[in-house]
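Lab notebook, bench 4. The sequencing result for the construct came back, and we need a structural model before the next group meeting so we can plan mutations. Quick request posted to the team channel:

Model the 3D structure of this chain.
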Amino acid sequence: MLIVATLISAMVQIAVVLAIAGLVYAAFGRKAGFRRYVGLYRAPLPIVLIGTGIGIVIAATAVAFPSVRAIAGGEGTAIAAALSGHGSGAAWVALVVTALFKTAVSEEILFRGLIAKASIRWLGFRAGNVLQAAIFGFVHLALLAVAKVDHFILFALCVNAGVLGWIAGWLNERHAKGSILPGYALHASANLVTYCTIALLFGR
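Done. Here's the predicted structure in token form:
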């Protein structure tokens, strides 16, 4: 039941983001194909692997801090929800689905596929990539604001999200001809390492 619920939730979230992207494309982007408009096409494998490596390194560094673990694995988070199955196989599958699909796919399509590309078209790469990264960090600020944590840690986590967003945009646009796959690889690997490490080593 947990796996089905997680899969449905992931598919709904991705479908909503694709619908939003489709509406924007219909209004502003008909000159290009939809997949190219949002970056849903192949990227050079070495760049995808670099994105994966960056995600793993940053996640492994982040989970070393107890404050990060407390926020990432706290009540109401994906980790807590998945582990409500008390470490069962279904809970782990749900955790992996959440890490790789529910958040990474939808957020990369929205932020690096739709917002970054629109910002870069309007402002050029430098300003556009900074803008999308700042929006990405700010959204995390809004999500993390519900957690009762030190303001400095909250700020640091949001800056970290913004930096990761900037790196993802840079990899995509400067090294993968606009494909969002390197950014997805970075995001998904960071999620997976963070979620599984906290659940395996620190989960209750």
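The radius of gyration is 17 Å.
Will bring this to the meeting.
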